[in-house]
Fold:
Amino acid sequence: MSLRKLLLEEFVPTKELEEMDKLFENSEELNVYKLLIQKAEDKFEDVGGHGSSRKVYHYNDDKVVKLAKNAKGIAQNTKECDIGTDRMYENILSKVHYCASNNVFLISEYAGVLERDEKFESVTGVPWISYLIFLSWVDMRLNNKLGLYLDTSFSGNETLEQTFKYMAKNRSDKNIDENDYKLIENSDFCQEIEQFIADYNMDQLGDFYRMDSYGVARREGGDQIVIIDYGIDSKIWEEFYL
Structure:
């Protein structure tokens, strides 16, 4: 399906627009749109990133296009455009290269879908299960939420070391190493994730517990694990998902 047909059929009717070009406010952006149209005629490769709000297609070897299907998608694109252009966190986020002024689409860095725990660990130095426990600890400490693995015995005042010791003792089914907190403390990736969550008040971390929210970006220094889906905060969640 061409980009024009895709947007006309799935997005424009909700905006009641007669011409696609009216979505764009300046000629430079319209030229980008026309380039996308030309690419779409050869058919974008579907990268499988389809949800209720957006579709994701290859734009070229190292970029993808995220197309909003509705108001939810525009809100998520808007959030990602705001965050993804912050070079302070480019080591942990897929970079956003271009945003339409109306946020109908954005062009961002392509990162191959992360499919195996072993790949996450080989790049970050942290086992996937230990990362999820760390993320749950951050969720409790910053957002007062239990996250994916913590239970009601946690108060939010526990140290990371105490959390891992408790989890290793009480969740033996997960094969948790109680000393993995040391890996977390020495992981640049984990420390930047925690700082990012705090700086941007990311209080809806549900997608962050999903492996398909991460990808492997090809950077100059080698493979880098990055978050590829970070467009939901509490405001968007409450407006569109509750």
